[in-house]
Amino acid sequence: MEFYKYQGTGNDFVMIDNRDLQFPKDQKIIKKLCDRRFGVGADGLILLENDAQYDFKMVYYNSDGGESTMCGNGGRCLVAFAFFLDIFEEKCTFIAIDGEHEAEIKNGIVKLKMIDVENISLDGNDSVLNTGSPHYVKYVDNIDLFNVFAEGKQIRYSPTYQEKGINVNFVEKISDEEIFVRTYERGVEDETFSCGTGVTASALTFLEKNNLNTVKVETLGGKLKVYAEKKGESFLNIWLEGPAKQVFRGKIDLSI
Ligand SMILES: N[C@H](CCC[C@H](N)C(=O)O)C(=O)O
Q1: Do 11 and 107 belong to one domain?
Q2: If you measure from the C-alpha of residue 187 to the centroid of ligand 1, how many angstroms do you get, rounded to a whole number?
Q3: Ligand 1 binding site (Cβ under 6 Å of any ligand atom)
Q4: Among the listed residues 254, 161, 144, 184, the one whose alpha carbon sits nearest the alpha carbon of residue 43
Q5: What angle do CA 73, 127, 116 make, to 5 degrees?
Q6: How far apart (Å, rounded) are the C-alpha atoms in residues 199 and 131?
Q7: C-alpha distances in Å from residue 233, one per residue of 60, 121, 225, 236
Q8: Catalytic residues
Q9: pLDDT at 159
Q10: Total of domains in the chain
Q11: Which of 28, 90, 161, 202 keeps 20 to 30 A from 173, CA to CA?
Q12: What is the mean pLDDT of each run of 10 residues along the chain (256 residues)?
């Protein structure tokens, strides 16, 4: 089985061209492929498939092998992969578990339109919202010293969130136009170098607090930008922009 390895600001994925629908959608195989010692190693696995109404379809799995909700960095990497496969020229639309996405690619930078966000709920002083995946957003100081794994795991497995899980983002303001975000990711059950839907969720809370439309977001794995328009309680026309790169390609025997 041929595979490609992509990363978007350090959030990394095994990408498979599954337009022939030959890939076995088996949790054990996917978990093994994502294993960083016994497999290729990745935060997730993404299948590119055909769709009658769209340029392509996205199917996303976390590294625990379970199919999951939307992956923002994965969506950006999939756009770069589809461009590499000559599926489209500059702009595309694809279908994912959370609905339709527009995207464009230029010089390795992918702009991905995210779903609209109806509102931001509060849990104490923290925020809870869904940007295609569920997110918890907490502002902290000295984020470089923060124990993201322990604190993130505690919230993710707390009684409120245990059953369905939630991704937990910790945010520190860097300037009036930039934040730093670190994320404990559901389904990876660890901190990842970047989480696209988490960066988007964190950015929307910052835009709301500061009445802005654009914010730069720094992550452990690199820099992203988020644009959004506020309408009442909702956010529309949300775009996540940043690099997406092919790291290597290879063949793997699925009986690994
Ligand atoms: N782990 C997330 C999905 C991937 C999110 C992240 N990799 C992104 O870039 O959005 C979840 O199960 O909700």
Answers
A1: yes
A2: 8
A3: 11, 43-44, 62, 68-69, 71-74, 133, 167, 185-188, 195-197
A4: 184
A5: 50
A6: 10
A7: 29, 10, 22, 10
A8: 71, 195
A9: 98
A10: 2
A11: 161
A12: 97 98 97 97 98 98 98 98 97 98 97 98 98 98 98 98 98 98 98 98 97 97 98 97 98 86
Question: Which residue lies with its CA nearest to atom 11 of ligand 1?
Answer: 186
Task: Find the 228 Cα to ligand 1 centroid distance in Å.
Answer: 20
Residue 8 CA: nearest ligand 1 atom is: 9
Binding-site residues: 11, 62, 72-73, 167, 185-186, 196-197
**Taking a C-beta distance cutoff of 8 angstroms, is the pair 167, 186 a contact?**
yes
- Reported residue count of the chain is 256
Q: Give the pLDDT score at 256.
A: 66
25 CA to centre of ligand 1 in angstroms? 18
> Residue 249 and residue 20: Cα distance in Å, rounded?
18
Residue ranges making up the domain that contains 207: 121-242
Q: How far apart are CA 234 and CA 119, in angstroms?
A: 5
The binding site for substrate comprises: 11, 62, 72-73, 167, 185-186, 196-197
Q: Is residue 104 part of a domain?
A: yes
Within 8 A by CB and 6+ apart from 201, the residues are 127, 129, 130, 131, 135, 137, 167, 169
Q: pTM for the full model?
A: 0.97
**Rounded to whole angstroms, how far apart are CA atoms 151 and 166?**
13
In a domain, 256, yes or no: no
pLDDT of residue 255: 82
* Confidence at residue 100, expressed as pLDDT on a 0 to 100 scale: 98
Residue to mutate (ligand 1; options 70, 79, 112, 153; most atoms within 8 A of CB): 70
CATH number at residue 101: 3.10.310.10
In a shared domain, residues 126 and 236: yes
